[in-house]
Amino acid sequence: MEGFDSMMRIAMGYSLSTAYRLTDMQQNRNQQILWRKVWKNIAPTKVKCFTWLVVRRAGLTQEVLKKKGQIIVSRSQLCGKTEETNSHLFLHCSFTSQLWSLFFSLTNTIWTTPEHTADLLGCWIRRGGSKRRKKWWRIIPLCIWWTSVEGKE
Ligand SMILES: [Zn+2]
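Predict the joint structure of the above. Result:
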């Protein structure tokens, strides 16, 4: 690795650790921009806070409870078919997928769902068209995530 680091230092004019540090700084900056846009969203505050939990994977899903040491047989609370993870619950569950599909068919949007909620929100925020349209576009994931959990109760 030292040889590779030296080669990179020579090739790029700075060390690999500097490159990693710059990448981290850029990722932090992207996160700050993302969260600024989420907090400016027109959704109610409780929905924005819920979004924060979803994207940070901090909500009490069965995945989180297992990581905290609870012994449970994990099953999706929405479909009951597979293990309940953050990504399953908010992106890939058949119940949640129906909400996403409904939105995509209504808007003629072609979309490939990413693996994680943070990836989806990062991509989603950058789209939306005009300023007026972006305001409504940006509320969609928040509404779908909120509805997927609230709609089940
Ligand atoms: Zn499910």
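Residues 76, 78-79, 81, 88, 93-95 surround zinc ion (CB under 6 Å).
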